[in-house]
Predict the structure of Ankyrin-2.
Amino acid sequence: MKTTAAGGKSRLPWLVMGCLLAALACSLWMLRKHLPDAGTETLEQEPKGQEDHLAQQDQSQKSTEPTCEPEVISDCTAESQPEPPVTAPAPGERSRMPNFHGLEYQLFLPTTWRGESGQTFPVVVFLHGAGDGKFSVMNSQSLPRLLTRNQSTCFDPRHCWCLPSEYERATAKKEAPETSPDAFLDEEEDLRSPMAACDFADRFEAITVMPQGWSVGDPVGWTGERLSKVHLLTKHVLEKYHGDP
C-alpha cells in the first residue's frame, strides 16, 4: 500500500532519509566509544618501537667492536721475512716507495687522499728504533703495523692486531704543562688504550713517511747526514702529495 501525506506527496523518501541519519548517528557513537582504546593502543606501541630502535642501535655498536681472536703462536720471526716489494702508493695502504736519493722509505696516504682534489693533510715522520730498520721488522709493530687494513704478520696471522688483556690498564707519566721545564710530571695516568684498532688505517688522517735509516747489520743511528736526507724526503712528500706545511 502506498502511503501519502496531505497534498498527495509520498512520505517514503523521508522515511529512508531518517533511517540513514539514524544509522550514521549510531556509527558515530560507536566510533567515539572506541576512540580512547585506539589511542591507548597507539601510545603503547610507540615505546615498543623505540625499544626496538634502541636495541638495533646497541646491536650495531656491538657489531663494530673489534673481535680479538686467540693469538696463534708461531716460530716465525719478522727478521727472517723478505722485504716488501716496491709498489705504487694507494690511499689507505702502507707502500714501499722507490729509493729517494739513497734513502729507502715507506709511505702511507689517508683513505680520503685524492691526487686531483688539492686537499692537504698533516705529515707524520716515523723514525724507527735501533733494531727496527728492516721493513719487515718495522711493519710488525708500532705505528707502521697499524697503517694497513691487514695487520697480520708471519708470527701473528690475525688481520686485527689485538693486545693481550694485561695491557688493559697501561699507565704512563703525565706530560708536563708548557710552562714547566720538565717534559713529564712525577704522576702517572691511565692511557685508556684500546686493545685493538682494526680500522685504524681507514681513520688515520695523516700522510706518514717511514724512512729506513739503517739495517740491523749497520746500526749507525740517525746521524746528521741521514736526518738531512729525511728532511729532503719530507719536503718532497709535502710538495708531491699535498702535505700541509
